[in-house]
Structure formats: C-alpha cells, structure tokens
Amino acid sequence: MRIRQVTITRFRGIEHLRFEPGPRTVILGPNNAGKSTVLEALDLLLHHGIGGQRPGPQEADYFRRDPLAGFEIEAVLGGLPTSFQAEVHQHLEGWREDQVQVVPEPDGEGITPIVRVRARATSDLDLLHEFAKPESEGARFGPARRLDVGWVFDGRTRDPSRQLAFYQGGLLDRIFADADLGPALAQSGRPPGFAGEAPEV
After folding, report:
1. How far is it, in rounded angstroms, from Cα 148 to Cα 91?
2. Phi, psi of 118 (to 5 degrees)
3. How far is the C-alpha of 74 from the C-alpha of 42, rounded, in Å?
C-alpha cells in the first residue's frame, strides 16, 4: 500500500497540514519544526495496537492544548491489494493522479481505487478510528484492517527511558564522550577497546 495524501488538523503544534507523499519521502527541517509530529500522527492513525496498545490522546496532543475542538488525522491509502479491497469494498473511492484528488467512484480512466481512513480525537480524550468516506458514516477502521496496512514506525528514539541507555549518539554517549571508561569496562569484564553497545543503566 501507499499513502497518497495526508491531512492533519489541530494535532499538537500543527493547526492544518496537507501533503502528498511520493513513493519515497524525506521530511527535513530544523528542531521543533514538526517532523516527528507528522510521523507520530501517522502512527496514531495506522498503528494496529495488537500486542502493545498505544496510549490514548493526552491534552498536549491537541492544538494549543485545547481538547474542545478535537483533532483529526486522515490518510488516503492507495495501492490496495485485491484481498484488502474485498474487505473494505463498501468504503472504496477513487484517486485521480493527474488532479491529485479523491473522486467518488473507484474505477474509470485514470482512476485507481483508494480508501480514506482517519483517527478522530474527541473532547473527552477518546480516539476513534474510522473510514472517512461520507457514506461510511464513521464505520470503524479496526485493528485487523490497520494491521493489513503494514505500517511500521520506530519511535523508540523519543522514549525518555532510551535516553538512559548507552548507544551511539544518545544522551549518555554525549555526556561521557570525553570520559575514560576503561576502568568501568574492565570492571564489567569487557575489554578496554570494546566498541559494542553497553548495557542499559
């Protein structure tokens, strides 16, 4: 599958953003520009939650920390396998590549089938996964269908507990960059020239 379009509304520091990723997309920008926010928004939408439920929305996830207006993350998914299309046939729409837009019918000249999905957070800090086609009337975009999407996002680098581990480029690596760790490594049984990852502290 391929994400054809992403729309993020009132999520964290993003009031409104819409863009069309290509087959390979690089997100560049300075610190606090919103790069990670875009990826975490997609993770909130597409993570299946099987085997490790994602935490629900918090006040900080809402634009200006105001839950009253909610927030919404929507994606247009194309390149749908035939088996997936069969499972979601009532939610299918079309994508017209030359005009970069969604059209009502999933077939026709220059049109490929797509499905629109969204994660919608309410003012009560609930998160609803839905199909976004108007005729779908908010039908649930459940974990099994999200698993079919095959989304993978490794957000561990933003996990505060990871900052307390020795790994290249991590907080402890930077703090101890000029320190002589030879005695500590010798005491741990590791050779002084050990270049591998040290155990978590």
Report:
1. 15
2. -150, 155
3. 8
